[in-house]
Amino acid sequence: MTAVKQESAPSPKAPPPLLDVRDLRVTYGSGPSAVPAVRGVDLRVEAGRKLGVAGESGCGKSTLALALLRLLPPSATLSGEILLDGEDVLTMKWGRLRAVRWAGASIVFQGAMHSLNAVHRIGDQIAEPILLHSRTAPAAARRRAGELLEQVGLPAARADAYPHELSGGQRQRVMIAMALACDPRLIVADEPTTALDVMIQAQILRLIEQLVADQDLGLIMISHDLAVLSDTCDRLAVMYAGRVVEEGPAKQVYEHARHPYGHALSAAFPRIGDLSSRHAPRGLPGDPPDPAALPSGCTFHPRCPVALKSCATEDQELRDAGRDRRAACALVEPGALGTPGPHGGGESTRSTP
Ligand SMILES: Nc1ncnc2c1ncn2[C@@H]1O[C@H](COP(=O)(O)OP(=O)(O)OP(=O)(O)O)[C@@H](O)[C@H]1O
Fold first, then answer.
1. Band of pLDDT at residue 350, cut at 50, 70 and 90
2. Which atom of ligand 1 is nearest to the CA of 28?
3. What is the value of ipTM here, to two decimals?
4. CB neighbours (10 Å) of residue 247?
5. What b/e readout covers 72-106, taking b as 16+ CB neighbours within 10 angstroms?
6. Which of 23, 63, 295, 328 sits at a 20 to 30 Å CA gap from 35?
7. Which atom of ligand 1 has the smallest separation from the CA of 242?
8. Per-residue pLDDT tens over the stretch 226-261
9. What is the pTM (predicted TM-score) of this model?
10. Nearest ligand 1 atom, CA 60
11. What's the gap in Å between 349 CA and the centre of ligand 1?
């Protein structure tokens, strides 16, 4: 019998992800005082998917968000690739970049009161990017602003209001309406619910989730609050000192972090509906490092409760941590279960007091 060689059918080429960030680096300034705020970040977001980016203040979250649309100050130097629908934002000509802002991707900033212009009616402010990006007539842009307000749960008539006439939650809805004005494919929400009370925060998060699902958008949500992100997002990336140190399915990262920093960050927030002492929030001692003077080896080692001696000298890359997860920790082995955190694997030799 002759063996028949089976020709494998060519696999259909998968479309590129909506956003594919490769080895992104951002440095403010130059010379000895240079601040490496983002140090080699890789991220992917597909249409209809939600990626949460978490980390303490100063870890580079906002720099990352602003870099995605090249909104950083001139002192910032960027390298790597930011592929939005396959097109590199970092090498785009100025005219193309202007078209991509708002229409390709748009940002919802924290603190709506500071982002809205106090002396213009909100309908005019929502209509402005529409007028800038299309040949829409002013009256039609105003009508569209009313529709967008209704989409985010406000009456169209609120278009005539000034920002100070709205509550904090309503203003944040206006910011979301504005972000949607030019039908972007990707929304970047930087601390969209900070400064809102818990009930309003929950409403805004549900609104964002609904819009992402209805319009098949990609979402990057940035927050220091891992609990909020795990509740809203599909995947989570945890940043420390300008790098992603842990990445994976949101609930897994929140509940069973593989990196000691992810573990410490998730322990710092109470579990919703679980007030037992086992899950009482615990703080993380010490401060994040100064990006201009990073510790040697793993940048987390001076604060790490399970650091090995080698962590003081050996840097750690993100590696496979099993179950669709990656972590940058010497204690993580591919496919291993459990966490290298204080409750998990391996003998630890603390290298610092
Ligand atoms: N324009 C700038 N010039 C110089 N350094 C900057 C500038 N903007 C931010 N940095 C520094 O870059 C680092 C990252 O800051 P970034 O604001 O991105 O962090 P973050 O995680 O968003 O913090 P936060 O949650 O407090 O906003 C910090 O050390 C910050 O001081």
1. very low
2. 4
3. 0.95
4. 26
5. beeebebebebbbbeeebbebeeeebeebbbbbbb
6. 328
7. 14
8. 989 999 999 999 999 999 999 999 999 999 999 999
9. 0.87
10. 18
11. 33
